[in-house]
Each structure stands twice: as C-alpha cells, then as structure tokens.
UniProtKB/TrEMBL annotation, chain A:
Family stated for the protein in its record: Belongs to the bHLH protein family.
Broad class of where this protein is predominantly found: nucleus
Name of the protein in its database record: BHLH domain-containing protein
Claim: Transcription is one of the keywords in the record: yes
PROSITE patterns assigned: BHLH
SMART domains xrefs: HLH
Basic residues composition bias: residue spans: 228-238
Organism, scientific name: Canna indica
TrEMBL record, chain B:
Pfam families the UniProt entry points to: IBH1_N (PF26576)
Keyword field: Transcription, Transcription regulation
Lineage: Eukaryota, Viridiplantae, Streptophyta, Embryophyta, Tracheophyta
UniProt name for this protein: IBH1-like N-terminal domain-containing protein
InterPro entries per the UniProt record, alphabetical: IBH1-like (IPR044660), IBH1_N (IPR059002)
Organism: Canna indica (Indian-shot)
GO biological process: regulation of DNA-templated transcription
Record-annotated IBH1-like N-terminal domain positions: 27-80
C-alpha cells in the first residue's frame, strides 16, 4: 500500500502508522482514511522519488498510538497553528470547507519550504503543548519538533477533527520533501545547518521520526518539512531528513515517544529560541519565534505571492510537473466547490471522498426521481391531449423569470410567453417565424397541431387562462392580448 | 427526430452555465405530446415509462446542446439504439490522470458510470460535466414535477 510505504519512509513505522490510521478510522468513522487517501494521492505526486528511499526503510514496530488521540484539543490548536504557519488560510479553509484540502497541500509545502525555521518554530510550540510532560533534548527537540511533531501532531489533531487532510497533507508534503532530499543526500548532513552536531541531529531526527510514528503523518510532514526547509534555505544544506530515513533504526520506538514528548515540550520554548536566532533566510524568523503563540491561532496575512514565490524558489527538479499538478489540483478543488454549491447539504462536508460520495448519491437520486416522474407521467399520459397547451403555457409561465434568452422555435403560445417577459415586440417575431416554418419546429408543431386541431378555439381560452394564472406582468398582459390579436 | 437534436434555442445564452428551461420544456412537452399521440392501445405502462424517460433525457440533452460533453454523449446514446452493455471502457488516460487511492478511484468510477460520457473524461472534466449534469437534472426534475402537477390540476 502506498500509504504504508509512505509512512515507512517517513516514520519507519508502518505498523505504527497503519494502526494510527485504523484508529483514526475507527474513531472518526472512516473519515480519516479517505481523507488520507486523498492526501496520499497528492502526496504521491510529490514523493515520486520515495521509491528509492522506500526500499531502504525498515518498518519499525508500531509506535505509541495513544499519542495520537491524547490531545485532541491541543491538536486542534496545532492544526490551527499549522494552518497559520503553513498558510494563513490553511486552517480556516480546512475548517470551513473541504476545498482547503487542496489549498493546504499547495500552501503547506510552500510555507514549509519558505521558512523552515518558522515552521519549526511553530511546529515546536504546537508539539510542545501537546507533550508537556515530555523531557527535552534540545537538539532532538529542535529536530523532532520540526520533523515529527509538526507532522505528527498536526496529523493527530486533524484526525480528531477531520483535520486529516490538512495535517496529512502537511505531513505528506514534508515527508515527500524529505524523501526527495533523501535521494541524494549524504548521510551526515545537519538539518538546516542549524545544528552543528550532525549525528546527534540525525539520530534525533530519526528518533523524532520514529517517535512521530505514532501519528503517521508526522514523520512524513516533518521530513518533508525539513526537506522543504532545506531546499528553501540552502540547496544543499539540510540533508538530515533524508539522512534520518536511511539511518533510522527500528528499535527506537520506545525512545521515540520519549523524544516526541520531549520535542513537544521543548519545542515551544527552546525551539522557538533556536529557530529565532538561527535562520537568516526566514524573514520573520525572529518575529515568528516570539509571535508563535499568537500567530498560530491567527492567520498571518502572508500574501499569496509569497507562496507562489516560494514554489518557484524551490527549484525542484520536477518543478514543471509539480506546478502542473498543483494547477490541476486547484482546478479540481474549484470544481469541487462548484459541486458543493450544487449539491444541497454539502456545505459542512469536508473531504474530497465524502464530497464525491454525496455527489454520487445526489446524481443517483435525481435519476431515480426522473424515473419515478416518468412513470407517473406515463399513468397520466392519456390525459395529455387536452392539457398540453395549457400545460405548456403553465410551465412556461411557472418558470418564473424566464431567461432572457430568445427562443424562437417554441410553439406559438409558449414562444409568445417567453418573449412576453422580455420584449413585447419580439413576441410577434416568433409567430412570424413559426408561420414560415423554420424547418425545425414545423414538424414538431404538427404534433401539437394534430392534438390541438379540435382545440383550435381553445387557444384563446388557454391564453386567457394563462393570463389569469397570474401572468400578471404588465408587459406580459399586454403581450398576451397582442398574441390573442395575432392569432 | 432531427428537430430535437438541433440546438433550437437561438444562440443567445447569457450564461453558459444556466440551464435553458424554456427549451427543455418545449422539447419535453413536445415529446410527451408525441408519445401520447403515438402510444398504442396495448402499450404497457413500462413501455410508456421508458419512452417518457427517454424523452426526458433527450430534452435535457437538447437543452444543453452540443456544448457539453455529457449532452453530446447522451445524444449519441439516444440516437444509436444499440445498447452497448459494458461498453463503457474507462480509457487509460482517465486512470492515469488519477493515481488516487482505491476509494477515490471507486468513486470516480461510479461517477463516470452515472454521468453520460463520463468514461472518456479526465477527472477535472468529469467534475465539471457532473456539475452541469446536476444542473440539468435539477431542471428536468423540476419540469417533470411541474408537468405532473399541471396535469393533476387540470384533470381535476
């Protein structure tokens, strides 16, 4: 399964990841899984290079899943912060509509890449609040917070609230990024150049990764986060993420949790400090460190152009592909929004899979309705002959505000009526055009004519009927009289 | 019924997304009248139902014209009476475009089956066509309900 593999890549704990997913599914009624699936889809686009890294990964034993569900509330905050950090609109959009799914994915990588320090700072506080009791290992915290907490916590939080897509996306993005980084990165590269000790960092990272295995997304997001950060900051600097993947050793699950806890706890304070002081390429690094707590919940008004700028800046090898994919995803999200407006009762549904389910159900119900109504009409059909005219006019009239569209080929009365609401004078034109058979409707009109031949004198009655029905717009009334005269 | 197939509404469509209800009503009522005229004494209710349903979809497709892929596919299907069972072959490109997980793929498949001509669409296009199809279906259902209601009222 791609997901499993992906998790393996990121956290080396496919079992941990899968149980987490399963838990999520059980807890949330299978919601996370489809959401994850969606995210996977997109993520796989990012992580096409995962395959090479996948082989090297060793699935580790499942990490503690309890971490996932421990702090739902805290996770929500984390989600909010993630949204704010990754993209101001991420959280809100995600919470508001399912379309954020795509936007978050798009924005999260960019944000992650833009200023990993900021991200890490944000992620650290988020992680920190979740794992208060955890001890702190400064280097580990920094790394772990960046990689795992960010992804994992966010994932957990999202999972609790159907925030999976966002978190998942973020984590996936980060993981994909990390995987990409893994491709050609030497083993001992320190992450983001922040930490001098590469090995401890790597181990920390790996530990962090493993610790984050509790939440499947964590390592992916963190890794990707790191990868993106590295790419954004220095093209060849931060290779810790990929390094950790390759060097992750399975038997660190127990430590993972501890590290994770540590990460979370320390991330808030130490990480913030570290990140604030370290990263030069993030314009708001210092601000972020201090404003993390504040900004996390708020939506930083980062202009979208930064996001786009970041994307261009990354200079990925498959940038054209990823950009095209992003464009495609945006298009799809647009369409999904349209569909959401069309299908009643879908405002609260977030997630592409659920939305698709709703759409399918709605289309099926509409088709069933057509079937049922046609059966009903079939039973009523014998009565059609006498009522077609009035029915036709009634329908035309009942359409309320008829579209302004000129509809010449309609039969006499209906055409007249359609015009009546728009332009009285043109009402005569359809009549004229009808007299000179446009070649389209004459044969069809004959059907009406045959049916109504004996009802020829009925037309005026019908017209009057329609008028009485409340055709009652001034021009309509005038027109009806005109059509009467015309006939 | 060539007249039905021709886009009758004369070219002035303000909004390409708006469903042309007058056109649809015209088509449908004309078809209903035709069915009523040509219905034989011994024709069963089921057969009439089928004819009316076919007329409904035809009116939908006519109102949408040829500017929509689903309407084109629907018209094609209505013209060629040969029912090709299982002929909806999902093109490879449709599968390629969405390297989605199984759930998503299942849903996409289901949607392709529902929307006429959906088998040969990309995912993006499929969503757009679905939106238009839903709009048209809504209009058609509304129209049929109005007809039923009108017939009921008039017969009383």
């Amino acid at each position: 399964m791609e997901k499993e593999r992906f998790f393996c890549v990121s956290s080396q704990s496919p079992e941990a990841v899968m149980p987490v997913q399963i838990n999520c599914g059980a807890a949330t009624g299978q919601l996370p899984q489809p959401v994850l699936n969606l995210g996977w889809d997109q993520l796989m686009h990012h992580g096409v290079r995962f395959d090479s890294a996948l082989g090297s990964l060793v699935p580790s034993s499942p990490s503690s899943n309890q971490l996932a569900g421990s702090d739902s509330v805290g996770l929500r905050e984390l989600v909010g912060r993630l949204g704010s950090s990754g993209d101001m609109s991420l959280t809100s959009r995600y919470q508001n509509a399912n379309s954020s799914h795509y936007s978050t994915l798009l924005s999260s990588p960019s944000k992650l890449g833009m200023d990993h320090q900021q991200q890490s700072k944000r992620s650290l506080p988020m992680a920190g609040q979740f794992a208060a009791p955890f001890s702190t290992n400064p280097g580990f915290v920094e790394r772990a917070a960046r990689f795992s907490c960010f992804g994992a916590r966010s994932y957990d939080g999202l999972r609790g609230q159907f925030g999976l897509p966002e978190a998942g996306r973020l984590s996936r993005v980060s993981s994909s990024q990390s995987l990409k980084a893994t491709g050609g990165i030497p083993v001992g590269v320190p992450d983001n150049g922040k930490e001098t000790a590469s090995t401890p960092e790597e181990t920390e990272f790996s530990n962090g990764q493993e610790a984050s295995s509790a939440s499947d997304m964590m390592p992916a997001s963190s890794a990707e986060n790191n990868a993106r950060k590295r790419k954004a900051a220095t093209k060849g600097k931060g290779k810790a993420a990929p390094l950790s993947f390759s060097t992750i050793s399975p038997p660190k699950e127990t430590e993972e949790e501890i590290y994770e806890a540590k990460r979370c706890k320390t991330s808030e304070t130490s990480e913030a400090d570290k990140f604030t002081r370290t990263k030069p390429n993030t314009e708001q690094s210092s601000d972020d460190g201090q404003k993390q707590g504040k900004d996390n919940n708020a939506k930083p008004p980062e202009p979208p152009k930064d996001y786009i700028h970041v994307r261009a800046r990354r200079g990925q090898a498959t940038d054209s592909h990823s950009l095209a994919e992003r464009v495609r995803r945006e298009k799809i999200s647009e369409r999904m929004k349209l569909l959401q407006d069309l299908v009643p009762g879908c405002n609260k549904i977030t997630g592409k899979a659920l939305m698709l389910d709703e759409i399918i159900n709605y289309v099926q119900s509409l088709q069933r309705q057509v079937e049922f109504l046609s059966t009903k009409l079939a039973t009523l059909n014998p009565q059609l002959d006498c009522n077609m005219d009035s029915l036709l006019r009634k329908d035309m009239h009942q359409e309320g505000t008829l579209p302004q569209q000129v509809y010449p080929p309609l039969d006499l009365t209906s055409t007249a009526f359609s015009y009546a609401q728009q332009d009285m004078q043109t009402s005569l034109n359809p009549l004229d055009s009808l007299r000179q058979p446009p070649g389209v409707q004459l044969d069809s009109l004959e059907g009406f004519a045959d049916a109504n031949s004996q009802l020829g004198n009925f037309w005026e009655d019908d017209l009057q009927y329609v008028v009485q029905m409340g055709f009652g717009k001034s021009q309509g009334t005038a027109f009806s009289s005109q059509s009467l005269c015309a006939e | 019924m060539d007249s039905k197939r021709r886009p009758i509404h004369g070219g002035i469509s303000r909004n390409p997304n708006s469903t042309s209800k007058p056109a649809m009503a015209f088509h449908f009522l004309r078809a209903l009248s035709h069915i009523r005229l040509t219905t034989r004494r011994g024709s069963s209710l089921a057969r009439r139902t089928l004819r009316i349903r076919r007329a409904a979809y035809a009116s939908m497709a006519c109102s949408a014209g040829t500017r929509r892929a689903w309407s084109r596919a629907l018209l094609r299907k209505l013209r060629s009476p040969a029912p090709r069972r299982g002929a909806s072959v999902l093109p490879r490109r449709a599968a390629r475009t969405t390297s989605s997980p199984d759930t998503d793929l299942r849903q996409a498949l289901a949607l392709r089956r529902l929307v006429p001509g959906g088998a040969a669409m990309e995912h993006c296009e499929l969503l757009e066509e679905t939106a238009d199809y839903i709009r048209c279906l809504n209009a058609q259902v509304w129209l049929m309900q109005a007809v039923v209601h009108g017939l009921g009222d008039l017969s009383n």
